Every structure is written in C-alpha cells, then in structure tokens.
TrEMBL record:
This is Zinc finger protein 593. Keywords: Cytoplasm, Metal-binding, Nucleus, Ribosome biogenesis, Zinc, Zinc-finger. Belongs to the ZNF593/BUD20 C2H2-type zinc-finger protein family. It is found in: Cytoplasm; Nucleus. Pfam families: zf-C2H2_jaz (PF12171). Gene3D superfamilies: Classic Zinc Finger (3.30.160.60). The lineage of its organism: Eukaryota, Metazoa, Chordata, Craniata, Vertebrata. Residues 1-36 are annotated as: Disordered. One of its GO terms (molecular function) is zinc ion binding. Residues 12-28 have a biased composition (Basic residues).
C-alpha cells in the first residue's frame, strides 16, 4: 500500500535538476556572463574551440552573444540576421547602463557614468566562397 506513495518521492532528486534545466533553457547564460565572454581573451577561446562531437556542429560555430552553437557556418550566419540575435545585441548594450542606473537610483553615491558598449556581431571567417 505504501508503495505508490514512495514512487513520487524517489524522483525528488531529479526535480531539483529540472528546475535548473528549465531556467537555463530560456537563458543559456546570464548577460553579465556573456559580457565577460566578450572580453578579447575569452572571446578568442570561445570562437576557437576544440572539436567536440557531443556539441552541435562539433562546437565550431558559436554565437558569442547568444551562447549558442550552430550546425554550420550557414546556420550561424542566418542566426545573425534573426530577431533573436539582434535583440540580444541590444540587450548586451543596455545592460551595463541599466545596472549603473539602478545603483544610482538606490542612492549608492558613487555614480560612475556608463561607458557605451559597442556590441557587434562577431566576424565570421569566410572559408567557403
Ligand atoms: Zn546570436
């Protein structure tokens, strides 16, 4: 009799993971994480990753700003033209501004004027033409 009750219980460990997966599904990375990915050193590493067959496109086509992998160069270029990508670039530009504003609004005193961030789609190597 008590058996059926236990079934639901033993999955509780999995539930925790589901909550995490759900969150990361919508936003692979936080914007501030992507901001740090955008530093030249990190960007270079991310854009030239080792071949990994477990990852989409063997990890060779990565959109830095969306933290997404693509099957091939063509798919990635198409992605660069999408709304999703353009919205992301815009978000990345605005984020530091928003944070500075929030701090000032909270009366944190030391208001540092925000530095305008120019966010551009990464350069793609034209290998096949
Ligand atoms: Zn993108």
């Amino acid at each position: 009799m008590g058996k059926s009750k236990q079934i639901g219980n033993h999955k509780s460990d999995k539930k925790k993971n589901i909550a995490k997966t759900w969150k990361t599904k919508r936003r692979t990375k936080d914007l501030d994480e992507i901001h740090s990915d955008m530093t030249p050193t990190n960007a270079a590493k991310l854009l030239k990753q080792e071949v990994d067959y477990d990852v989409t496109g063997s990890a060779q086509h990565y959109c830095l700003h969306c933290a997404r992998y693509f099957v091939d160069l063509k798919a990635m270029k198409e992605h660069f033209r999408t709304k999703v990508h353009k919205r992301r670039l815009k978000q990345l530009r605005e984020e530091p501004y928003t944070q500075a504003e929030a701090e000032r609004a909270a009366g944190m005193g030391s208001y540092i004027p925000h530095k305008a961030v120019e966010v551009q789609t990464q350069q793609v190597e034209e290998e096949m033409s």
